[in-house]
Specification:
The protein is mainly β. It is built from 1 helix and 11 strands, in the order E-E-E-E-E-E-E-H-E-E-E-E. The strands form 2 sheets. Strands 1, 2, 3, 6, 7, 8, 9, 10 and 11 form a 9-stranded antiparallel sheet that branches. Strands 4-5 form a two-stranded antiparallel ribbon. Strand 4 and strand 5 form a beta hairpin. The protein starts with a strand and ends with a strand.
Length: about 110
C-alpha cells in the first residue's frame, strides 16, 4: 500500500510523483507603476499540486477519473486536507501486452486549491 492519496474519501492509486507548489495570489491592483516599480500585495497562498502516475490498468484510470470530479472536492494527501478543483486529466495509452488487460503508460492531472 502506498501513502495516503484520497479524493472524496476514496483511496486512489499511489502516484509515481507529486509536485506541490505554493502559489502566491496577488491583489487585483497589482502591476507596475509608471516608474517600473512593482506595486500590490500578496493576499493568499494556495497549493497547486501536479500528480503523475506510472503504468495503470484501465480500471485504475477509470477509478481516478470517477473520483476526481468536475467542480470542487476534498483531497487528502498525506497530512494535507484541501478543497481543490482539477485541470485536464491526461493519459498515454500503452495498449494490451497480450493478456487482455489494457494499460496506460502514464496519467497526470493538476489539482488547484480553492
Amino acid at each position: 500500500m502506498g501513502f495516503l492519496f484520497q479524493a472524496g474519501g476514496v483511496d486512489l492509486p499511489s502516484p509515481a510523483s507529486i509536485m506541490i507548489n505554493d502559489e502566491l495570489i496577488w491583489s487585483s491592483d497589482t502591476g507596475r507603476t509608471q516608474s517600473g516599480r512593482m506595486a500590490g500585495a500578496v493576499i493568499a497562498e494556495k497549493k497547486n499540486i501536479s500528480v503523475k502516475w506510472g503504468i495503470l490498468t484501465e480500471n485504475q484510470l477509470a477509478k481516478i477519473k470517477k473520483n476526481l470530479p468536475h467542480g470542487f472536492f476534498k483531497l487528502r494527501l498525506m497530512d494535507l486536507t484541501l478543497t481543490v478543483y482539477r485541470g485536464t486529466i491526461g493519459s498515454e495509452l500503452l495498449g494490451d501486452p497480450g493478456d487482455g488487460i489494457i494499460r496506460y503508460k502514464s496519467a497526470s492531472v493538476d489539482l488547484i486549491e480553492r
